[in-house]
Design brief:
Strand order of the largest sheet: 2-12-9-4-5-6
Helix content: under 10%
Order of helices and strands: EEEEEEEEEEEE
Distance between the termini: 40 Å
Radius of gyration: 13 Å
Low-confidence stretches: none
Shape: globular
Largest sheet: 6 strands, mixed
């Protein structure tokens, strides 16, 4: 059974940093592209960053230059380094495998990121 477990969220002041981690079990992690998503209160879940099996990365415009996605195939983890955080980054963050038209696995519990002074 595939399980995605996100961690690392918390409360941070504007301009601060957080590093999120996602541990994937029950899947052949290394053969998949991976992605981070987020869902803010009252909004739809959005794709934030992707990383391919070849380590090619892509980001939504609003986080370019501030967020960095990474992966460790040996450990089966995906990271998201978030710098210069803004209040609008407040959301629950999730990881998953992006596929055409959606995502591959059931969502994990996510990790809450709150940016507030």
């Amino acid at each position: 059974q595939v399980q995605l477990v996100e961690s690392g969220g918390g409360l941070v002041q504007p301009g601060g940093s957080l590093r999120l981690s996602c541990a994937a079990s029950g899947t052949n992690f290394r053969i998949y592209n991976m992605a981070w998503y987020r869902q803010a209160p009252g909004k739809q879940r959005e794709l934030v960053a992707t990383i391919t099996t070849s380590l090619i990365t892509n980001y939504v415009e609003s986080v370019k230059g501030r967020f960095t996605i990474s992966r460790d195939n040996a450990k089966g983890t995906v990271g998201l380094q978030m710098n210069s955080l803004k209040p609008e980054d407040t959301a629950v963050y999730y990881c998953n495998v992006p596929i055409v038209g959606g995502f591959l696995y059931p969502w994990g519990q996510g990790t809450q990121v709150t940016v507030s002074s």
